[in-house]
Amino acid sequence: MSKKIEKYLYIVSPLLILAGLFNYYITDKFASFSMITIIAGAGIGTIFFVRFFDDVARKITKRKVKAGINSFIITIVVLGLVVILYLVVMNHTKRFDLTMTKRFSLSDQTVKILEKLEGPVKVYAFYSKQQDASGITELFTEYRYHYKDFDFEIIDPDLNPGMVEDMGIEQYGEVVVSYEDRTEDLKSKNEEGLTNALIKLLKIEIKKVYFITGHGEHSIDDYSKDGYDKIRAAIKAENYDIEELLLLREEKVPEDSAVLISAGPKMDYETHELDLVENYLQEGGRIIFLIDPGEKGEQFINIAMFLERYGLVLGNDVIIDQLSRVLSGDFFMPVINSYTYNPITKDFDLATFLRFARSVSTKDTGDTQIFSRIVASTGEASWAEKDLESLFSGEGAQFNEGIDEKGPVGIMAYSRITLGRQPDAGEEVAEETQTEEDGEEKPLEEAFIFVAGDSDFITNAMYQTQGNKDLFLNTVNYMSDRGDLITIRPKQQDSVYLTMTAKQGRIAFFISMIIIPLFVIFAGLYINIQRRVKS
Question: Could you give the CA distance from residue 98 to residue 475 in angstroms, rounded to a whole number?
Answer without folding.
Answer: 30
